[in-house]
């Protein structure tokens, strides 16, 4: 973790501690988003809205999803990177519409029904250890990766890591999306299985493994984390795939039964506002979505750097297919079959 | 007698003046209604000769005003209008007679004389024509100041004829007066008329028959 | 009296706007429903294709239908309006093989779907949904059970499309109304142009211009133009008659006036009082004749002028006759004659007539009789009832007229071939005119043993 995040975190903690029992205008946010990561954002929000008593609860995607339907009282705002599940909840009618200038101006591709908004922009990348390049040409595309895995499988055996689709909703979503783009994806899965790839539950574990030298190559990592990690750890190289790069978004919506709808609207508006996006771009590892925010960590800058190869996971009804149990079962079955092929 | 002539045509006005003055009248003439109206408010006359069509107004208005004031001075209307409507309206408003232009002076003199006689009788109550006189109050008739002994019906007849002297007395009126409304022979009236004629013989008066119309007591003309 | 009763333009506009409003209301209602139908059709067909796409993905495994919901199908269901999405795949027993929402599907719908595809609306989780159910027989290795596919979405898109289509219809309609209104104004200008032209033509006419109109008019104005023409023609006729009459009259007046002039002129030259007296007598007679002529001309003119018969009413001819003869008998002019009235019928004799005209008629008859008969002649007036008519007659025992002039007597300025008396010859012409006005017949006949008998037969008015 970078020192600046700790400062920010400390600042928020201080702020919260300094003002105990403030005027009761509470706001409950259930988020599958590391608190440390977004601390500057939360601090900026509290600064802008000192009257709101923000209660930011950081949980896993699964827990967040459960609390959408199960929590009483319901949370005010729900944030999660498990895009299909968020989508399914919205489709079930758990979201309430945000009718504001910010919401209307939000790019069409990053929202659905004006109820749920993708407010971050996170490219999915490959990461490798510098050691790898001493033995082979590092992969730049999915095809390169496949070739590498087939040709150098003895060298890479046990040194490749990726998301576990069964343990991580994000991982599952990414693989589903990969599978939608090309049927050769399954060859890749088979190749990873052949290389005895290790499946991790989150990006940090993968990055730690690479830094520690356990892994040489990681596939489908959250680029936001990986890029920040690589700045701190020079032995880790981040590669944005040159053929296509998926982009994941954190999705936020106001709960239909939000006990504090006004505060919830203010929070969401802040996320979508120029100020909120500026904080995301400038003070967190996340990328901002808004085209009018300028800085190194913006969707626009990323596009400029990577070109047209960014493929955001579309926020639309097709995501609902990913949570269909039969489809999920079928996908997982095939995953296992291909991974264990050998 | 004082006569007022309201007439704007100087020729006619002069003729009237010349014709009426010799009959023993004083004639005053005005050419406009305004002047005549003013004169009427201050003075009284025995007869008014009124031309209806004057430049400054309608003679009927003047007549109406006169009668409204309760002035009963006899009025003879002179007009070039031959419309019967004007005549009827004039009589309705209280005109006593009506003469349409052009008229003969003889006719005018006769009318004027009759009107003056009637207006005089109104003050004196006795009916006169020539030598004949009848006092309705006493029911006595006289000829040349000699009492005329007459039966009742003849007296009635004489009274009616005298009352209309100068104009025709309708036969129906005389019959009703004499015989009531009972049906009588067409000769019955004639019988009384001829009796009366005999009595008036050589008196300078005569009764003229108008066939189918009536009778008129008149002075014999030379 | 011309009363202005609105304008043709506003009348047309009112009718048009009433029609347009009524038709427009109908049209808009129709447009709304057809927009709705169109939107329903468009979105229903999307549901249909989504159901087909899902059906494609149904497979059988171990006797059970299995479906990997195609993402594309969901996108089709969601439409570009991002509807909320529902899908359910039901096996033959109605169990949900796969479904994303728990929208209940009652057994009756399921049985209906077996017959034919079902379209229905339902309420769920705070929104209205359009559902489509479709059943198909899928062939697997072991079974051939039917599978039902239900898809559905919320209605925002339909409503938006309906609104969009309806708005389009409304704006088209408004444009149409606007164009129609402008066209109507234009049409009205064009249609009223002949009217303006006619008006201008009439305005430009001189006051005494009685020529027929020279104008091109549409069929609708023909009647008006013809009526105007007839009016002009009548005015022309009456003006011509007036001119003729005035010429005749002035000629007639000039004759006695020139007599007066010459007589007085001669008398002025003379120094002898006897001459003066003779001349003055002649002048007096001439003046009398002239003034009588003038009043006769006047009544003739009046007769021709007042031709509308508006003064006609029911009157007792006997009473009128008695009154008029009474009046005349007392006059100075009648003193030389024996003017009398024959025994009149006891009952009133009603005719339809104008009192002033009838008095004029009687006056002229009596006046003529007095003038054209020697003194002490017996002149008698009377009435005879004959069937549906009443004959008014005047007879005298004067010299009468020759049979050959009898026919011409009632023409103006005819004096029965005699120049000796002071008549103008207008009297009988006036009588004739008045008789015509009363639908009466004038008859001139000799009277036995001598003299003339003039009779006028009026139709009796029997109406009470």
From TrEMBL, chain B:
DNA-binding region(s) in UniProt: 124-219
The keyword DNA-binding belongs to this UniProt entry's keyword annotation: yes
PTM sites of type 4-aspartylphosphate: 51
CDD domains xrefs: REC_OmpR_PmrA-like, trans_reg_C
Taxonomy, superkingdom: Bacteria
Domain OmpR/PhoB-type: 124-219
Keywords from the UniProt entry: DNA-binding, Phosphoprotein
Signal peptide boundaries: none
PROSITE patterns from the UniProt entry: OMPR_PHOB, RESPONSE_REGULATORY
Response regulatory domain: residues covered: 2-116
Protein's UniProt name: Response regulator
Organism: Billgrantia bachuensis
Automatic annotation (TrEMBL), chain C:
Reaction(s) catalysed (UniProt annotation): ATP + protein L-histidine = ADP + protein N-phospho-L-histidine
GO MF annotations in UniProt: kinase activity
Principal subcellular localisation of the protein: membrane
Ranges of residues in domain Histidine kinase: 248-462
Presence of the UniProt keyword Chloroplast in the record: no
The EC number(s) this enzyme carries: 2.7.13.3
Enzyme class per UniProt: transferase
One protein family per Pfam: HisKA
Classification via SUPFAM superfamilies: ATPase domain of HSP90 chaperone/DNA topoisomerase II/histidine kinase, Homodimeric domain of signal transducing histidine kinase
Domain HAMP intervals: 189-240
CDD domains: HATPase (cd00075), HisKA (cd00082)
SMART domains assigned: HATPase_c (SM00387), HisKA (SM00388)
Transmembrane intervals: 12-33, 173-192
Subcellular location: Membrane
Domain of life: Bacteria
UniProtKB keywords: Kinase, Membrane, Phosphoprotein, Transferase, Transmembrane, Transmembrane helix, Two-component regulatory system
Gene3D superfamilies named among the record's database cross-references: 1.10.287.130, Histidine kinase-like ATPase, C-terminal domain
Keyword NADP: no
Protein's name in the database: histidine kinase
Organism: Billgrantia bachuensis
Lineage, opening ranks: Bacteria, Pseudomonadati, Pseudomonadota, Gammaproteobacteria, Oceanospirillales
